[in-house]
Amino acid sequence: MGSTRPQRLLRAVQKNSTRGDPQSVISAIDHFCRHKEWAMNVGDEKGSILDGVVSEVNPSTALELGTYCGYSTVRIARLLPPGSQLITLEFNPAYAAVAKQVIAWAGLQDKVQLVEGPSGDLIPQMKELFGVKSFDLVFIDHWKDRYLADAQLLEECGLLRKGSVLLADNVICPGTPEYLEYVRNSPRYESRYFKSHLEYTQAEDGLEKSVFLG
Ligand SMILES: Nc1ncc2ncn(CCCCCNC(=O)c3cc(-c4ccc(F)cc4)cc(O)c3O)c2n1
Ligand SMILES: [Mg+2]
């Protein structure tokens, strides 16, 4: 059984980065994806935009939908203030296994709760599983046709408060048209598009930042 791309990405992290140094983990993944094998991490260009939003929000509780190999998990967790928590949901057990090791290699395991399962089932359990009152920041990067349903589910479960920030990846490529239409036209959100490029390519993509108005 040959290795998978996430396993090769993990090996590149362990070979080319320093344990406990999140920035070196981020650089090792970006180098691997740019020069060896493309992978669907948010990447360095959109990653800088993500960093800016995380720093601005300075969340005490954050949620990530779609962990994949843990690249954006590491980007977010490295910026979190002490005592804050990032919960990240991953559907695919093979991805989750790699992500756990990437997050541990970066030394960020104490700030991150990785939960395996579909977002639609897990979001309604956030309060009882983790005692979450509401999320200050949600990074949405999972199935593109689940963005709208899960944003509405977060609202219905009372997991958003006035000022909660949703940051959605891939709103152009692969694209999330019904989600965009919703957050841009709903009176309950103040939405803004950050134009960028699809990770490691010159194709257009971008992030949509939407503030929940309550
Ligand atoms: N419900 C639920 N709950 C929890 C979950 N955990 C995972 N999943 C399933 C998510 C599976 C991966 C999602 N991500 C992408 O598909 C993605 C794709 C591209 C891309 C690909 C090819 C191209 F040619 C161009 C662009 C680029 C990106 O940046 C992407 O993020 C879940 N689902
Ligand atoms: Mg993405």
Could you describe the 3D structure shown?
The chain has a seven-stranded mixed beta sheet, with helices on both faces. It has ten helices and seven strands. The chain is an alpha/beta fold and 214 residues long. The site of the ligand Nc1ncc2ncn(CCCCCNC(=O)c3cc(-c4ccc(F)cc4)cc(O)c3O)c2n1 has 20 residues, from strand 2, helix 6 and helix 9.
Radius of gyration, rounded? 16 Å
Low-confidence stretches: none
> What is the topology, as strand order, of the major beta sheet?
3-2-1-4-5-7-6
Number of strands: 7
What is the share of helical residues?
40-55%
Distance between the amino and carboxyl termini: 50 Å
Shape estimate: globular
What structural class do the secondary elements suggest?
A: alpha/beta
Beta-strand portion reads 15-25%
Mean of the pLDDT scores? Answer: 98
Biggest sheet details: 7 strands, mixed
Q: What count of helical segments does DSSP give?
A: 10
Name every ligand kind in the structure: ligand 77H, magnesium ion
In N-to-C order, the SSE pattern is HHHEHEHEHHEHEHHEE
Condensed summary:
By secondary structure, this protein is an alpha/beta fold.
Protein topology:
Elements (H helix, E strand, L loop, with lengths): L4 H12 L5 H14 L7 H15 L3 E5 L5 H7 L7 E6 L2 H13 L6 E5 L2 H4 L3 H5 L4 E6 L6 H10 L3 E9 L2 H5 L1 H9 L3 E9 L6 E9 L2
Parallel strand pairs: 1-2, 1-4, 2-3, 4-5
Antiparallel strand pairs: 5-7, 6-7
Helix pairs in contact: 1-2, 1-5, 3-4, 8-10
The structure holds the ligand Nc1ncc2ncn(CCCCCNC(=O)c3cc(-c4ccc(F)cc4)cc(O)c3O)c2n1 and magnesium ion.
Magnesium ion binds next to loops.
